[in-house]
Specification:
The protein is mainly beta. Helix content is 14%, strand content 45%. The protein has one helix and eleven strands, in the order E-E-E-E-E-E-E-E-E-E-E-H.
Length: 174
């Protein structure tokens, strides 16, 4: 709960465009570095959490009002988020398709550390397996063939690297 969070500090480095945040939870210091890609709808979080808390990402329904936070958290039934692509490795993105009012957008989530992922309704829960990890979230209107091609190329490259390493360092004896 929020009352467990103390010693909150946040600094914006205007020159580099990075937000440095830190706070304590149950007495342990947690640090988050946040940046926004200038050419994409993409946010990057570098997290240092000794307690390895899970991270939850929720997709709200818009309020449609002016001058509010634009988030209506009580209307989950008016829109849906579903998992399209589940990563085989932490370095591969998780793709969520979100549909509301006949409009569709995609969220590509990529992380450097992952123990478990759960997607339900309009919420994604990521449980890290390392205290220091990175989460990238990119929003896009479409998932194009180039994205799928890059994912396939990454899989082929990974396969080649594995087998090359295997044959160079061990192999089989006949």
């Amino acid at each position: 709960s929020l009352d467990m969070i103390t010693d909150i500090s946040q600094t914006l480095d205007l020159w580099d465009g990075i937000i440095y945040s830190s706070f304590k939870c149950k007495g342990k210091r947690i640090k988050v570095q946040t940046s926004c890609d200038a050419s994409k709808d993409k946010v990057v979080f570098c997290i240092d959490d000794p307690m390895m808390h899970d991270v939850q990402i929720r997709f709200p329904y818009p309020t449609g009002k002016h001058s509010d936070d634009a988030c209506d958290w009580s209307n989950d039934k008016k829109h849906t988020a579903k998992l399209l692509i589940r990563p085989g490795k932490p370095s591969y993105p998780l793709v969520i398709c979100n549909t509301m009012d006949g409009q569709t957008f995609y969220a590509k989530l990529q992380f450097s550390s992952m123990k478990h992922i759960n997607v339900d309704s309009n919420r994604v829960v990521i449980i890290p397996d390392n205290r220091k990890w990175t989460l990238q979230v990119e929003f896009t209107k479409s998932i194009d063939d180039e994205f799928v091609k890059k994912e396939a190329e990454a899989s082929v490259d990974s396969t080649k690297a594995y087998w090359n390493r295997y044959w160079q360092t061990g192999g089989a004896v006949d």
